[in-house]
UniProtKB/TrEMBL annotation:
Keyword Signal included in the entry's annotation: yes
Organism listed in the record: Phaeodactylibacter xiamenensis
Swiss-Prot/TrEMBL keywords: Signal
A Pfam family this chain is assigned to: GldN
Signal peptide (residue range): 1-23
UniProt cross-references to InterPro entries, sorted A to Z: Gliding_motility_assoc_GldN
Name of the protein in question: Gliding motility associated protein GldN
């Protein structure tokens, strides 16, 4: 009885001592909604999401040249206006902004569009100048009516990049008896307009060598329409082929695109035929 009373008294004393200590919170400490102490700013989440940043990028399996039984080079176009590709144009962090910031910071090397073989690297300064234009604007002082000229730098609006080119290789690996695909490059396409605002053409800005950019893309989260807590990254998106696209060119002896000899519905049907041909190649290798 005495022992129980002794523990009760000790617990009661600790309760009263802990009360004032918990009530004293420093002024520079902010209690977040998650209940964690943060001296900088409130946490706009339940917990700090670190899975995407801490995940390691797995290297590709080694493929011997002798094991490549068949391969085909394919060029695709990803249109960010399609429902499945809306994540590329997420306003908070557009995919184009990720590529530009990484290129300007020197985290990835981008290449000229003189060809799509990644032969002419561009410096970060060249990329920065490519992503902006300089205009001279005349302004008039309303009091003195004095005309002055100002140099204004116009940055590329990420919303102007509506499509991306994708270069990839499909191949059949004899060692694993599987059809595989490796993405080689990504090129953002920007629209060009005349002085009257009329659309002229669409041109690629630069080529990004995808195997080198995997580390950067693995740190960038992709908006998931089904689950905000999903830690999917852009590297996951490309590796899982979680995007919609159409084929605009395949390797051929004339090195021409589909639009060079087809148009309209015929072009889309030919794109689908090439996609189905790749699928059927692997399927036809097996007998049942």
């Amino acid at each position: 009885m005495k022992i129980a009373l002794k523990f009760f008294s000790l617990g009661l004393l600790m309760f009263f001592l802990a009360g004032p200590l918990n009530a004293q919170t420093p002024d520079n400490i902010i209690m977040t909604e998650s209940g964690e102490m943060n001296a900088d700013k409130p946490l706009d989440d339940i917990v700090e999401k670190r899975l995407t940043f801490e995940k390691r990028v797995l290297p590709y399996d080694h493929i011997r040249e002798a094991d490549i039984f068949w391969e085909k080079r394919i060029w695709r176009v990803i249109d960010v206006r399609e429902k499945m590709n809306l994540a590329f144009a997420y306003p908070e962090r557009p995919f184009f902004t990720i590529l530009m910031e990484a290129a300007e910071a020197g985290e990835i090397t981008v290449y000229s569009t003189e060809d799509d073989k990644f032969s002419i690297p561009l410096t970060p300064d060249e990329v920065a100048s490519m992503g902006a234009s300089v205009d001279t604007i005349a302004t008039v002082d309303p009091e003195t009516y004095e005309e002055t000229f100002q140099v204004v730098r116009n940055e590329v609006d990420p919303t102007d990049v509506k499509r991306y080119r994708l270069k990839e290789i499909w191949f059949f690996d004899e060692e694993t008896s599987t059809m595989q695909v490796r993405i080689l490059g990504i090129a953002p396409l920007i629209e060009e307009f005349d002085d009257n605002g009329n659309f002229r053409y669409e041109r690629p800005m630069f080529w990004v060598y995808y195997p080198e950019a995997r580390e950067v893309l693995a740190r960038e989260r992709v908006f998931n329409i089904a689950n905000d807590s999903s830690p999917m990254s852009y590297e996951d998106l490309f590796e899982m082929r979680f995007f919609s696209s159409y084929i605009y060119k395949e390797s051929n002896v004339f090195d021409r695109r589909l639009e060079d000899y087809l148009s309209g519905t015929d072009l889309l049907m030919e794109s689908e035929r090439i996609r189905q041909e790749i699928f059927n190649f692997e399927h036809d290798l097996w007998s049942y």
